[in-house]
Amino acid sequence: MDISIDAPTRTREPFTFTNFFLMHKGDLTLAFSFFIYLVSLAALMFTHFKTSSEIAVSMAEAALIGGLCDYIALKMIFERRWYLPNSGVLPRNRAKLIDGIAATIENEWLTPQMIGRKLSDMDLVGRLGTYLQELDLNDVLGQAGLERIISQAIDYLDSPEKRERLERVLKRMLPKTVTRIYAVMSRFGAESIGARIAANLRKRLPELQNDPELRDTIESAIHEFGIQLHDPESYANQFAQRLIDNLVRRTVESSRGQITLMVRENLARLSDDQIRIQIESKTRTHLDWIRVNGGLFGAFFGLIFALSRILSHNGPAILAHFHIGM
């Protein structure tokens, strides 16, 4: 089994301001923080609103620091940069990442037992019966396919060894009385019943290649077999159930370790950039909220620190003013 893992294809969505914000919310938060920092710094330098400007500058500075640190942290996860010590967490731990993903998939997410239960719950016998009931030989074989099967049957009957094998099968299937009669007749030089049937088939098969009733006969037999597969009491259903159960059990047993191997082999084919693109494409929208929250909480803590500085510098005057007011 070979499942290829390709780089994701990016579908272009229609442009809306909502989509644009969601795709670039981290960059927009950082740009907005920088803009507020410039405006508040200008207000602090060129206006008389010193206290409010100082608070705004402190909030913008903290938002910028929080957003930039989170931006650098995300860069360190996905990319290697010489100016960022120990950056490239995913590329540097590629082998551990691949082994961890493969082991998690087989041991927790897609265990052989889960596969076996799912296959058992799918009613494969009933699905096979439905397929056979609706089978059209034209779609499956076509005229050329049917003629090829008949030609193979003719070649089979041309072989003496295979004719003898067919005779043995026919002897077991036919009533014993009939086979005994032909056994007695064979002592007088008459052909055995198996040889007669085989010879008749050999003679008739070429004539059946273009027989329109042959296809209908075969289809009717297949459709009837499909109907029997839906009957739990029928021998066909019980036989098919045992066959499929054994097949599922052997498949589950042989799949142990194969899922891990398959995932590991497919991931090993990918380059570092392809792995980064796949993970980043699935997580970038969510990880950008880290940058947004870094800016928001940075601004909040910047406000707290600015207010604490104002209180520490002007605390006595504020307390005195409050005392006079009392």
Please describe the topology of this protein.
Blueprint: H1 17-23, H2 25-46, H3 50-78, H4 89-92, H5 94-109, H6 112-121, H7 124-133, H8 137-140, H9 142-158, H10 160-173, H11 176-186, H12 193-208, H13 212-229, H14 235-254, H15 258-268, H16 272-325
Helix pairs in contact: 2-3, 2-16, 3-16, 5-15, 6-14, 7-13, 9-12, 10-12
Notes on the structure:
It is a single chain. Helices cover 81% and strands 0% of the residues. With 326 residues, the chain is mainly alpha-helical. The chain is rod-shaped and about 125 Å long.
What's the quick description here?
With 326 residues, the protein is mainly α. The chain has helices spanning 17-23, 25-46, 50-78, 89-92, 94-109, 112-121, 124-133, 137-140, 142-158, 160-173, 176-186, 193-208, 212-229, 235-254, 258-268, 272-325.
